[in-house]
Amino acid sequence: MHSHISLGKLFGIRIGIHASWLLIAFLIAFSLGSSFHLQHPEWSYATVAVSAILTAILFFVCLILHELAHSLVAQSKGLEVKEITLFALGGVSQMAEEPKSAGSEFQVAVVGPLTSAFIGAVCLVAVHLLGSGLRHSPVGEVLSWLGIINFGLAAFNLLPGYPMDGGRVLRALLWWKTKDTVRATRLAVVISNGVASAFIVIGIYLFFRGAGIGGLWLAFIGWFLLQAARESL
Question: What is the pTM of this model?
Fold first, then answer.
């Protein structure tokens, strides 16, 4: 997946945005604006708008840090990283070659979720340190949302869906066990297809149970994982 908008370079790695991320950024800001307004009707419209936009921008930074962690560990293992691209479901670090060992694969894959979990912990600790008086201020609400969403991002990425981080961790473990990278990849894809199919079935079920766009979004994630696993294989 290639970016449509280039943002420059960090540590020699191109940073870019796929067009699909712009839609997600808008939806995040719009959703947060509605949520902040409902929870804090005393806030002015300007406060709500600035808080929502700032949160969306900081979430973008968190995604960059998640992918940058992958890329820097990959570079430390002698792997060339061409580009980091943010898209509708998060981000991807495009490496010029596959890791040369199961250990390298594991370290490159697991560092992303660990980074997101660390960011989440820092944000929630910061909220706690603000004290009860500022906990529900714009700063407190922004930090709370970022803390929760980063823990969610870490957990989601650890699901065994290849080529997500969890799927790559699974492949690394299978590679270490079987000593055969091709066989490990095929097994990881089979498991990933099961996870993706479950997402689709559950998403469609939830949609018809009244979950609306949330159910369709879950089904879309499942469909995307099926396609991504097939292309990676």
Answer: 0.87
